[in-house]
Design brief:
The complex is a heterodimer of chains A (457) and B (1060). Chain A is of the alpha/beta class and 457 residues long. Chain A is built from 13 helices and 15 strands. In chain A, 36% of the residues lie in helices and 12% in strands. In chain A, helix 1 packs across helix 9 and helix 8 packs antiparallel against helix 9. Chain A is globular, with a radius of gyration of 24 Å. Chain B has 1060 residues and is mainly alpha-helical. Chain B contains 41 helices and 16 strands. In chain B, strand 14 and strand 15 form a beta hairpin. Chain B is elongated, with a radius of gyration of 39 Å. The two termini of chain B are 31 Å apart. In chain B, 45% of the residues are buried. The chains are: A alpha/beta (457), B mainly alpha (1060). At the A-B interface, strand 8, helix 8, helix 9 and helix 11 of A face strand 1, helix 8, helix 9, helix 20 and helix 23 of B.
Amino acid sequence: MSDQDQDLSQDQPSKDTPAAPLSRRIFLRGTGVVMALPWLDSLPVWGATGDAPKAPSTPPKRFVVQFMGTGINPDHWWAKGAGAEMELSRSLQPLLPYKDKLNVINGLFNKPSTGVGIHPGMTGNILSGMPLTRGAMLHGGISIDQVLAAHLGQETVQPSLVLACEQPLTGYHETNFSMAYSSHISWQSADSPVPTEVYPSLAFDSLFENSGSRRLESILDRVREEASGLRRRISREDRSKLDEYLTSVREVEQRAQRMRGDLGKAANRAKDKGQPLAAMKRPDNGLPEDIRDHMRLMCDIVALAIQTDKTRIATMLMCRDLSGLFYPFLGVRDAHHPASHNDTSDDYERITQHYVSQLAYLAGRLQAMPEGNGTVLDSTCLLWLSNMFSGSRHDNSTLPILTVGGLGGTLETGRVLNYRDKGDENRKLCSLYLSLMDRMGVPLKRFGDADARLIGI
Amino acid sequence: MGRKFSCNLAGWQGAASALALPVLLAWISTLGVATSSTATAAPNPTAAELEKEFARTVRPFMQTYCASCHGSDKPEAQLDLTSYATMSSVVKDFPHWSLVLERISVKQMPPPEMSPQPSAKQREAVMAWIRAVRQFEANRNAGDPGPVLARRLSNAEYDYTIRDLTGVDLRPTREFPVDPANQEGFDNSGESLTLSPALMKKYVQAARSIADNLVLTSTGLEFASHPVLAETDRDKFCIFRIVDFYKRQPTDYADYFLAAWRYKHRAALGTPNATLASVAASSGVSPRYLELVWSTLTAPEPTAGPVDKAGPIARLQVMWNALPAPEGASVDAVRTQCVTMRDWVVALRKKVAWKFDNLKVPRGFSVGGQCFVLWKDRQYASHRRQLYPDALQVGGTPATRVIPARRRGDKTMPEQSITDPADPDLFVPQEEAARASVIKSFSRFCDVFPDAFYIAERGRMFVNESGDKGRLLTAGLHNSMGYFRDDTPLMELMLSDSDRRRLNQLWLDFNMVAYVPERMHLEFFVYERAESGTMTDPEFNFARAEDKDSLSDEKIKRLADLYLAKAKKNGGEPAALQAIEEHFQWVSRTIRATEKARLAAEPVHRKALLDFAGRAYRRPLTASERNELMAFYQSLRQKEHLSAQDAVADTVIRVLMSPSFLFRLDLESPGVPATPPKSPSKMRTVATEPRSVAPPAGAKGVEPLSDYALASRLSYFLWSSMPDKELLAHAAAGDLHRPEVLTAQTRRMLRDPRIRALALEFAGNWLDFRRFEEHNAVDRERFPTFTNDLREAMFEEPVRFLMDEFQENRSVLDLLYAKHTFVNAPLARHYGMTDIAGTVGNDWVRVKNADRYGRGGLMPMAVFLTRNSPGLRTSPVKRGYWVVRRLLGEHIPPPPPNVPELPKDEGALGDRTLRQALERHRENPACSGCHARFDSYGLVFEGYGPTGELRSKDLGGKPVETQAPFPGGESRSGVTGLQEFVREKRQQDFIDTYCRKLLSYSLGRSLQPSDESTLREMQKRLAQGGYRFNSLAETIVTSRQFRNRRPLNRPFTATASVKG
């Protein structure tokens, strides 16, 4: 995983002492920088140990959602033309460098979030397309990112990253929906949202400290010792039963260790060949004072996680619906939500552009990472969306949607698509999700309120 | 007893040429046969004699008649009969020799078509020798505990154990691989339960998902029925604990009036010695509150008159005194009047309840903000037992209230005066002295009858008459999270001391677990900034929810000062300013108190972890186990810097992954001192290390199980789960091994609802319906009545039937002959019990005369008839095979591979019936040998279709015939005919099978010859005890095998040393 890791494994010939993972952690904390292998070089280690490194196959496909609450400035949200000729409105200007990798999709809507009252009811199902329940018992549906994580997440350190730049709210809105729906777009089950990670440092640790597997290893260490002690106190015949247990514990333990060891070897190989390692300093504890720093750090973490294949799925709630974020640096005095009630203002245009520029920033990071014959961005789909088109009218009859990245050549880009006049059956957001999941290799019969793919995507 | 068996056997052996001689029966028969019909062996042969006889008779027999197929070269069925050179080698592999005995005795072997054939005398000699060896072994090792291997929990046991350990039925093994069964058909023995890396990974996942449900409370560890990962999960868990507590409280005044009436008329009601407390208990009301209500109803009051003269208490007393005496009215009639009284109280109380307006807030502040909403909550909460004097109408004049001018949007609404409507209920006298007395009565009335005992649900507080629903325990804030506790009347008037403590705990837990005060304060920032705009001035910029120190006293104080200053500047009135001050004091106080409580809970959690581990290991922890667990926890906290929640969760996972939890090890005496601890009621950790050598054993080859091991053996036998508190208390007291204690505990456990596991895991596997819930062989288009509900009901019927057998200690013969069964509505409809189906819904009821509908006992249960039908036809073969194999215990070899298939649909049989097709099949001698043993047992069920429905015609439209010839040439018809036949000829086989299966299940191993005497004892006591189930269970649990184990490191094969 990191070259420190590899050095350490030389210092530690045996994994029998629980001290090893501990000191590794301290080491990591001490330097504060983690260097990780890009996906391509770590690839051979995913195969069976000892085999000759496999020829690099196609890079994995990745899916990232960025969400902005309470809509955009409708006056400055348009695009014309295609490819290099594409013209972009003011709010979309940050995406100019990525025009050929961009799709501007207008006219889609999420029917179950319409006609139920404003705000939370328009948000909690934006990624699931399932109706939400009012009152004390939360109930909606599993979101697309968690469906993908359930199918694809076993192969990476984290099945998915679910990040937010604003803490969740859980009170009641006047519509009698819980405001948890305003704060959570990623749902692990119909009854329960995925807790969001707000702290960059903890998000970083979840990827690079691999604490889940290390914690498991120390548990297995203990039970293995216990079983060995027990072994002396039981009959010969019983020992054969306990040996089954010991063998099984060792097997599970070794699998985790082997992966770490192989990662170390791969890192060495890469270093020998002079290949670059992705590097990032561990973010400080606590939250950055400036929301701009916060958002940028979260994008950096997602970029690194994706590049080094620590996860393939990420959801970023850049701000909540009913957001309370402030933008003194944009010269806006109102908080986000009150500002959205004036959504055709210049103030709100600057806010909108700020969020589009987060997408552009992340796209730029991925674009700068070579992978195979292209860049990491080429095998990724960044999906950007909001829960309304107009915040002043609380209008979600269509939604502003952007995608960046070609998803390994499966998603045609450089287009402006408009579904506004295609009829309600043919402009479902969940149809887009079905189409994207197909391309991710997770074909479903139906999802949310849709059982048909989006035509023309 | 012996005589009885002999008689039975004599009758039985007459039929032996046509029927199987079950292995078990053959074993028992040795008693009679070995002494009477062998010429070659002495009555009680010695080992040397048997060895000699083996060389002289048996080996040559095998060489001559068996070796051509069962020789050393590619032996049939992998059985090389020439490989046994001595009697001890036979003994080691006795199960095979039991089969040899069975096949020879029914003349299946050597195959009739082979030659040469042994003479009857030769056959008899070999059979007698095998029986004699068995008898020899049985006597020599009688009561040998046998090889009970260390065994991991089966999937079923794992699920039940987790249920009893965590208190929630999580069933984590749903995605585990299915456990294999042992030779007796049970999945609870070390013989068959193996552990693989794949299963280990499942254990890891299961332990993690269990730990996901963990909640750290002020009193210990609890497990929710759902994962508790997100804030909303924690809220849900805590809220429902409190709301459920509230809902359990008896707060209906009518119940108290009725209880008071019962007490008043206790003599007439036949309970002259009743006390208020005893009446409260039997009425299910609070004794505390009943006392208050009673004294209120009976206290001397001014003479009753119109309410404006006498007050509400006197009025209530008039109504109460007017309740009729028991002689004159039914309780229901009295109750109706009590309900009228209650409605009167509630209606009047509502009229004199306090009402509060929103505070007038400073400019730029919102009435929906925390300071002002919580102020309003506090006003209501503190006035629930007080009179609202303004509501009273002095001298009949209603009050007039002034509503100040207010601005709403762009409109200013002018000041208004509103006069209440005149209401005689609220009249109080003009004259001062009289008024004082009436107001006193009103005050007392309000004090005794609060306007609410608790508030479980609250809409937005600053809106009049909000229609918000389902906001449990909320404070009524606007677009913001917040909870408020309002239950003072319940606490003061109704709850016992322990309930009050409990409720306080629940609220403390809510704050601790869900971080309520902390989150409320953080949401304060959000609301005051983004919603009300109060905190948009730059001087508030320091206060950010995201900052870690935003909850420090320092920052709270700084914010309070700024906020208050702004309120003053913007014209805040004293009440509003005071509300603000009080609010911030409350915030600081509550956050600090919760922090402190969380800190104080850590040692509680550590102790709870040890307790959890002890229960998970089903024995006290040793000192080193205890230290190791605590060291692990501390290293997670201090070195790994995990949160208390994560550290406890990892320790719980570590315990659930421990071999001491996953395995049943029957350790000799782990951590148990040689003498029992003095305090029997608690599991104790013992300082001494376990001895590495077994304590001196009593009998040769036997070592008593520790009382803890015995507790587990008992609970896994009867409940498939861990021992409960009471069992462990007996283990701690060291008296569980005493037969009278064992017997008493067994009886208690049989009555417990957990006995369901015995019905499911023992009988379900024995009778082969354990997996019926997944049965999918029924063509639902042809049988549209076969719904999931019906399938579930079919599965449930034997479970209910058997639980009733166990819990009510009924006769084991009921399984065969009972006239009753159990049904719910779907099953009753299926059985044509239309009169019952209409009345029971989804409840299960016992049907006494089920035989009127062709049901009763196990045999005609739809679950077995359906399970043994291939779909579109019945299968007399499978049904008959089920009866003789499962109920009567016969061993029948599988059919040869080239058997012709019967059509899948009985409608496709052409002119023939299924019966005729079978008859033709039996004409083939290769088939008739087996089919003769069971076809008839199945043909009698032809009156039941493929889903067990009654029928008179088969699917081909031909009338069904339920007659069948039985051995001995008799013909029997239908289930009743079969029941008669079994009663006359085969009942003993059923009893043998039942005993054998139950003993094997209880011991967690296959049976061996040395179990023979226990089986005989079981049968003896069964017959003496009127065939009641308890006698079986009690014989087993007090048997030598059950209470002992083979000593540590004793060679596995107890008989390998037989030399002669």
